[in-house]
Write a structure and sequence with these properties.
The chain is an alpha/beta fold and 586 residues long. Helix content is 35%, strand content 20%. Strands 15-23-22-16-17-21-18-20-19 form a 9-stranded mixed β-sheet, sandwiched between helices. Strands 3-2-1-4-5 form a 5-stranded mixed β-sheet. Helix 17 (402-414) packs across helix 20 (521-534). The protein is globular, with a radius of gyration of 23 Å. Bound molecules: fe (ii) ion. Fe (ii) ion binds next to helix 6 and strand 6.
Length: 586
């Protein structure tokens, strides 16, 4: 039985296919159309998923859409009456959703009535919760989803048991932790879709000097709930103004903070203006209040559910800094997040919701690795190399089997070279986890600057992340609970901070990826070889891209390699070295 999950017309459009309970493939549309956070209809992602399952669209039994236009209809109508412009925007969105069968039929050049799959509408946050619990290793767990807005709610919680989820509560628009984070990020001058990550990085450079004021921006009640101090916001008056310039482009958000926030906190920062102490402290206060609220909610959830484990989803669950403190701040002993906590993850959530909650099928799958995207055969890699400018530009090209390749690549990293590492299936979710990664020496304090100057061009306050052999986690970090998808930041042990300065953030934490041999044997071997050579079984890992979606095909990896000042490129068994690339002195 094949279930196709489709997240369309929402940021991070994506598709996933589940066959007889097993996830076969999952991928974001941005990897194909090369538009970051692309919304629109994920035709290419769907096509890839069907190919990976070896089936045609006519063989799909169920089609799961993570959106239920009828959810919270009363609240929606109330707001629609107050805000006609918002109502018009919602009507447009609704029309698109209603048109998904037609869009699918058009993409596959079929008549809608010839697509036999049964359509299911799954409410947004139930899809988020399903995306984490039903692929988690837990038989039972507490569940929490928190994001900006989906189906007019921002938050939902409950309990999962076996193949069922029980929803205990939710919080509707306009109260939203995601919108809180976005609105304050905008106020701090970070106005692009997805900029919240930057503000989380910046927070470590400041002091939560305005925490008292921020306690009025988000208010709690000692239970699982919270509400926003609405005077600081305007989205409840104007509606969340999310627009797409073109149907499949990156979403854009209108300003969500009010004049009152400016009155209370001072002038907002212009995007181009320098980041000063007041902004760093603002970011720290924003983050500190988010953590307080999240932990209070989780403590409340624990008190209600008495579960040992918690499964998290939704954009707020990307807050790796908060996630890393859950064990200290709440009674939960186990946590799980799948790599695409944001809206891309809805594609698998909707599919698994149908599989378990609708069809009553038993659990049979745990997502233990993140590699659910496209892969390319050695022949495809060879022809991409042959068709490229690599030889014409004097690159040294050779082929090596897995073990000598890991040794050779580790040697290059230890010599200070920047390595593009392209292997196997592309990662699901926004993090490169060792299959589409740029890898560098974590021991060099200057590596962050080198990477920024030569490739990434990111703001200086954004940290780079470490990948560590799972078996060495406790030696380098104060916690060793697995973080295979880079979803938690842990403190680096004091005595190791000098050993891995490049991926250690200014607050002494690292947003680590714990790498097991089972999950990614090639990447594990690379890190082990680096450890054998240097005594440090950790590498710096950043995504293989340059202000674009993570590379997907070998051609894109080669282009990025040629365009940037990367030194060495490994594509499967092919090793490419740039000419005249001298050893960088330590
Ligand atoms: Fe969401």
């Amino acid at each position: 039985m094949h279930i196709l999950g489709i997240n369309a017309y929402h940021g991070n459009a994506s598709a996933a296919i589940v066959s007889d309970g097993r996830l076969i493939a999952a991928v974001e549309e941005e990897r194909f159309n090369r538009v970051k956070y692309a919304a629109g209809f994920p035709s290419a992602a769907i096509r890839y998923c069907l190919d990976a399952a070896g089936i045609k669209l006519s063989e799909v039994d169920h089609i799961a859409i993570p959106r239920n236009p009828w959810a919270r209809l009363g609240t929606k109508l109330l707001y629609a009456m107050r805000m006609p412009s918002f109502a018009r925007e919602r009507a447009k969105v609704l029309a698109r959703f209603v048109g998904i069968p037609e869009a699918l039929a058009e993409a596959f050049d079929m008549a809608p009535e010839n697509i036999p799959g049964k359509y299911h509408r799954v409410e947004h946050h139930q899809a988020h919760l399903a995306s984490t619990f039903f692929v988690s290793p837990f038989e039972q767990a507490a569940l929490l989803s928190a994001d900006g807005l989906g189906d007019f709610a921002s938050t939902m919680w409950g309990t999962g048991q076996g193949n069922r989820m029980h929803i205990d509560g939710s919080i509707a628009f306009p109260h939203s932790l995601g919108m809180y984070y976005t609105a304050v990020s905008q106020y701090l001058g970070f106005r692009k879709f997805g900029d919240e990550f930057k503000v989380m990085g910046l927070a470590a450079y400041g002091e939560p000097a305005y925490l008292d004021e921020f306690r009025k921006i988000v208010l709690t009640n000692g239970g699982v709930g919270f509400r926003l101090g609405l005077e600081y916001f305007k989205h409840h008056r104007t509606g969340p103004e999310m627009t797409w310039k073109d149907a499949d482009k990156t979403p854009e958000l209108g300003a969500m903070y009010s004049e009152y926030m400016v009155e209370r906190l001072g002038p907002s920062r212009d995007s181009e203006a320098p980041v000063e102490k007041v902004h760093r402290d603002g970011a720290a206060s924003l983050q500190a209040r988010l953590e307080e609220v999240l932990f209070e909610m989780l403590r409340g959830l624990h008190a209600k559910t008495k579960q040992k484990a918690v499964c998290l989803a939704g954009g707020v669950a990307f807050n790796c800094v908060a996630n890393g403190k859950i064990f200290d701040e709440t009674p939960f002993e186990q946590i799980y997040l799948q790599p695409a906590s944001g809206d891309a993850g809805l594609a698998i959530g909707a599919a698994y919701f149908v599989h378990h909650q609708v069809l009553g099928q038993p659990r049979s799958f745990v997502m233990e690795n993140a590699y659910w995207g496209p892969s390319y055969t050695p022949e495809q890699v060879r022809s991409a190399v042959a068709a490229s400018r690599l030889r014409a530009e004097g690159m040294e090209i050779s082929e090596l089997p897995e073990e000598p390749m890991a040794k050779e690549a580790a040697k290059e990293i230890a010599a200070g070279k920047i390595l593009g590492w392209f292997q196997g299936r592309a990662e699901w979710g926004p993090r490169a986890l060792g299959n589409r990664s740029i890898v560098a020496d974590p021991r060099r304090a200057d590596m962050k600057d080198i990477l920024n100057a030569r490739i990434k061009h990111r703001e200086m306050f954004r940290p780079f992340a470490p990948s560590v052999l799972a078996e060495s986690t406790g030696e380098y970090f104060e916690k060793s609970y697995p973080s295979p998808f880079m979803t938690q930041a842990y403190s680096v042990r004091m005595n190791k901070r000098d050993a891995i300065p490049a991926p250690t953030h200014v607050d002494g934490t690292g947003r680590l990826q714990t790498v097991t041999q089972e999950a990614n044997p090639r990447y594990w071997r690379l890190i082990r070889e680096f450890g054998n050579l240097t005594g440090v079984p950790v590498v710096l890992n950043t995504s293989f891209n340059d202000n674009e979606p993570i590379v997907c095909r070998p051609e894109e990896a080669i282009e990025c390699f040629l365009r940037t000042k990367m030194d060495v490129l490994v594509l499967g068994d092919t090793l490419v070295r740039k000419p005249a690339s001298p050893e960088v002195p330590r």
